[in-house]
Amino acid sequence: MTTPGFRPTHVVPQHGMPAWEAPDPARPTVPLDALLPVRLMERRGDWAHVLCSNGWSAWVDGRFLVAVPQDPPRSDGPLATAADPRPLLGRAEQSLARYRAAVEEVADGGLDGESFRRRTHGLRIGVVVDGEDMWLYDSARRRWVYGDGTRLSTYATDRAPEGGDAFDARDVTGATADTDATDVLDDQSHAPTRIVRPDWEP
User: Fold this and answer.
1) Is 165 left (phi over 0), alpha (psi -120 to 50) or beta?
2) Nearest CA to 141 among 85, 201, 88?
3) In sequence order, what E strands does the chain have?
4) Does the model's pTM come out above 0.85?
5) How far apart are CA 149 and CA 133, in angstroms?
6) Could you give the 3-state DSSP secondary structure of residue 128?
7) 3-state secondary structure of 157
8) Which residue blocks in the chain are alpha helix, DSSP H?
9) pLDDT by residue (tens digit) across 40-79?
């Protein structure tokens, strides 16, 4: 039975660890199971007094306890601009709507092949969704970004490095909804796409 309000501060290492009834090598007790969550209650040199979720406590060698990371601070405010995938999704939806409208005009006989090519010149759209994972092409910055529904980070780019691959708020908001595709992509010669390291990797 778990003690109400129990919040672990450490876990037992993956191979388990011996335990003692007191900070005394002559008083061993039942060893602790591997990866058992415990709460550190007291330290005496290398000795650590830990509390288990069922209320049982013991002394262990505190040098081998694995600290549990603290929860990151949370904000109840709106998503930060750099993290919010919605502006980029909106631009992709608008570009797709423009392409579909041109296709429908061709199907209805309102556009010939040359007119269709002029109408769609410069449009580049890329969206891949697999469950919660999303890869979205940012035509304004000529890069693919990865999103998990809350944040965006650079995944691949066909641009030369510009002092780092950190995601910038201007990457999402720099182009307006009514920006013409040919203004976004004046240069149609694209360098090979580069896979970049995720933002969380050193």
Assistant:
1) alpha
2) 88
3) 10-11, 17-20, 28-32, 37-44, 47-52, 57-61, 66-67, 127-130, 133-138, 143-147, 152-157, 194-195
4) no
5) 7
6) strand
7) strand
8) 86-107, 113-120, 169-173, 181-184
9) 999 999 999 999 988 999 999 999 998 886 654 454 555 4
